[in-house]
TrEMBL record:
<dbReference type="GO" id="GO:0080019">
    <property type="term" value="F:alcohol-forming very long-chain fatty acyl-CoA reductase activity"/>
</dbReference>
<keyword id="KW-0443">Lipid metabolism</keyword>
<keyword id="KW-0472">Membrane</keyword>
<dbReference type="InterPro" id="IPR033640">
    <property type="entry name" value="FAR_C"/>
</dbReference>
<comment type="similarity">
    <text>Belongs to the fatty acyl-CoA reductase family.</text>
</comment>
<dbReference type="Pfam" id="PF03015">
    <property type="entry name" value="Sterile"/>
</dbReference>
<dbReference type="GO" id="GO:0035336">
    <property type="term" value="P:long-chain fatty-acyl-CoA metabolic process"/>
</dbReference>
<feature type="domain" description="Thioester reductase (TE)">
    <location>
        <begin position="14"/>
        <end position="281"/>
    </location>
</feature>
<dbReference type="InterPro" id="IPR036291">
    <property type="entry name" value="NAD(P)-bd_dom_sf"/>
</dbReference>
<dbReference type="GO" id="GO:0016020">
    <property type="term" value="C:membrane"/>
</dbReference>
<comment type="function">
    <text>Catalyzes the reduction of fatty acyl-CoA to fatty alcohols.</text>
</comment>
<dbReference type="GO" id="GO:0005777">
    <property type="term" value="C:peroxisome"/>
</dbReference>
<keyword id="KW-0560">Oxidoreductase</keyword>
<dbReference type="InterPro" id="IPR026055">
    <property type="entry name" value="FAR"/>
</dbReference>
<dbReference type="GO" id="GO:0102965">
    <property type="term" value="F:alcohol-forming long-chain fatty acyl-CoA reductase activity"/>
</dbReference>
<feature type="domain" description="Fatty acyl-CoA reductase C-terminal">
    <location>
        <begin position="359"/>
        <end position="452"/>
    </location>
</feature>
<dbReference type="InterPro" id="IPR013120">
    <property type="entry name" value="FAR_NAD-bd"/>
</dbReference>
Amino acid sequence: MSIAAAFKDHEIFVTGASGFVGKALIEKLLRSCPSLKRIYVLMRPKKGHSIEERLQLQGETKLYDRLRREQPDAWSKLVPIAGDVEQLGLGISAADLERLRNVTIVYHSAASVRFDDPLRSAILMNTRGTHELVKLALAWKKLRAFVHVSTTYSNPSVLEVEERIYPPLADWRTTIKLAETYDEETLDIFNLKYGNFQPNSYTFTKSLAEHVVNEYKDQLPIFVFRPSIVVSTIEEPVPGWADNFNGPTGLLVACGVGILRSQNCDPNIVSDFVPADVVARGLILAAYKFLVEPEARAKDKPLYVVNCATANISTITMGEVIEIGKTYIRENPFEKTLWLPGGSMTLCPVLHFIRFCTMHLLMAVVVDTLLRLYNEKPFLMKLQRRIFAAFSALQVFAATEWHFQNQNFRALHNLVPEKEIDCFGFMQHANIDYVEFFQHAIRGAKEFLLHESPISSKSARFRMKIFYVLDYLCRAIVYSFLLRLVYRFVVSLW
């Protein structure tokens, strides 16, 4: 059976539909599985917009341009469901629960992905939210596949990560009870100790959520799908699409506008990036496996786990990413560049601190002072504080290399009929041209995140030439000053 045909007349429930992975998944489902019956998406009112308005605004973005061309009526298959993953019962009304009774496939991708979230909020969203959805799914008698989207970093203390569940860091029921009983401040006091010194609340609560799933594996056709660091698309619906600054995209943008000059991390670490469209295809194929293979849903089997990771398929180091980015951004600069794109990595915390003070803080003071003189609102010091906080939260990931076994992920490609390889396969992208990939990523960041033209204007290119001259001039002044100090020191010894 073809993959598109396997989804015919299915009713799908998706949480996290407004997130990065959720958007890519919905676009792919609607465009490539046109015979599906309906997709219910859990949403909550936000910023004065109703759920219907939020869904409409999402559908008007450039991500769905291709969908509107190829399947102009597909958007009508989306049905918003009012709710909130942090609420008991997901906050879904009785009337909406009645509408969901015929759901056959669930994609649970809603999660708080902020690494600095308070422990209580992360537990309620990532762990209890999973349990609440599982309890609802027990009543959906037609359910054939429940895909829980986790992360390959759910067990960060394990450096060789297999496609299996690891021993729990805490009891998930007790943890939920603690979050329901104590306030945010109290829980944060015990965060590190209770979380077994995990690097952040995200990985801790996502690990617990996997154990919620594991406990219900004999009652539901449920499994765990773990993407690594999700980055911009490699092919569809357009190369380079992204909707956030997470991962290497934010790193390249910060370096590209000239505000990030130093990172305290290992440039030789092999990072695991997976394009968003590869994740979407993997999610569809994993559900397809459960639809067409009854043995996949058999009870009394270990929980099926998929590590959606590609570092052992297409390898690249963080240092290579930065060098590719610096080279291409100087050829195709951003419109609001503050200085020559650059930056480097170092494992020496002292050297990084010196660079941070001289290249980050000093630059922020100068720029903000100039802005105040022109009666403009200063912003760079505030932005540098946010960058510092973000990199502090990511420090362990910037200095550690994980290896993710992905036999189950690779095997999903073998399920794809030959005539659908181009549409649903992913191993054809095994040898990624990372220079071309990150060129598309930078153009995508310009277009989708910074709302600029993907090709730089003449004025931006002219400013880049000026920054070249100024950068060399400043370096000459600094080096001359340092040489003078060394000369005076040597003379004083004589």
